[in-house]
């Protein structure tokens, strides 16, 4: 496969609204459309053809990284079509690649039809906002829309640290500097340490992966910055526990208090197929850090957060079940999807 053939395939995939494109030796190309894999009726790709493709699309530095690590993450762009978050790797039958579609244009929060509670987080001046969910749940799209709202409404310095850069933002009213792991910085923690000397107002951390990154992100939020970050957690309560449990037992009480003081909100997101099968919709659980919520976090009563969210609609909060019920009542998702993703499936039976 040549670079030209790859670009045509990726353009076709974007036209078909595919979220992911898979190339694997001994298999024809496969697209993920609305959450389901669809195999193209092409000749199976050979290991040699994929090796030729890798040589053509990788820089010398990237080739060396692939050789040393046996896998590599980077962003690949097809001008006028889209950018693709790309992972090249090796498997039993040879080479393989996965491309995640990132549209050229950042969609607004209004286009995404997210609840107003998420809009409110973008208008904060400091603190930490976490967007969580499993891989492929649309976290990057939601965060890009949140950054875009700030870019339109404020005159501030936005600094992002990503692996790799996904959505490319163009400065509107804000100055935006985007840094990519491996290309512009060696680690999230290095970039965050440096960020505190780069006069940012808003910091986006692509992923909080380790103790040092989480600690530095909390410090940035504590020192007057607005920090956005992602985690692979399924609920607001689980997110709090994940943050705290990363630290040694003797530090956990201090971190719990620090997180309680700095957190402003948690958005737990899932991407579900629509009832008509023609698309997907993001469903959100939203936790807003009211005084009562901060107290529950501080006192290690995270098991009570679900109840606080249930009764916090006046503060823009909603549970995943409440969000699912809204979309079920509107006919957007099926009853089976609501039951499969509910915390308490009995309310949908």
Account of the protein in words:
With 349 residues, the chain is α/β, with parallel strands linked by helices. It has two domains: 3-103, Beta-Lactamase, CATH 3.30.450; 109-348, P-loop containing nucleotide triphosphate hydrolases (Rossmann fold, 3-Layer(aba) Sandwich), CATH 3.40.50. The chain is 39% helix and 26% strand. It contains 14 helices and 13 strands. It has helices at residues 3-15, 47-57, 60-69, 109-112, 116-122, 139-153, 188-195, 211-222, 236-245, 249-262, 291-298, 305-310, 320-329, 335-341, and strands at 18-24, 30-33, 36-39, 71-78, 82-91, 94-103, 127-132, 157-162, 175-180, 202-205, 226-231, 263-273, 280-288. The strands form two sheets. The chain has a seven-stranded mixed sheet, sandwiched between helices. A six-stranded antiparallel sheet has the order 3-2-1-6-5-4. A hairpin with a 2-residue loop joins β2 (30-33) and β3. The protein is globular. The N and C termini lie far apart (50 Å). The model has no long low-confidence stretch (mean pLDDT 94).
List the domain count as a whole number. 2
Q: In CATH terms, what is the architecture of the largest domain? A: 3-Layer(aba) Sandwich
Q: Which series of helices and strands comes N to C?
A: HEEEHHEEEHHEHEEHEHEHHEEHHHH
As laid out across the biggest beta sheet, the strand order is: 9-8-10-11-7-12-13
The overall average pLDDT, rounded, is 94
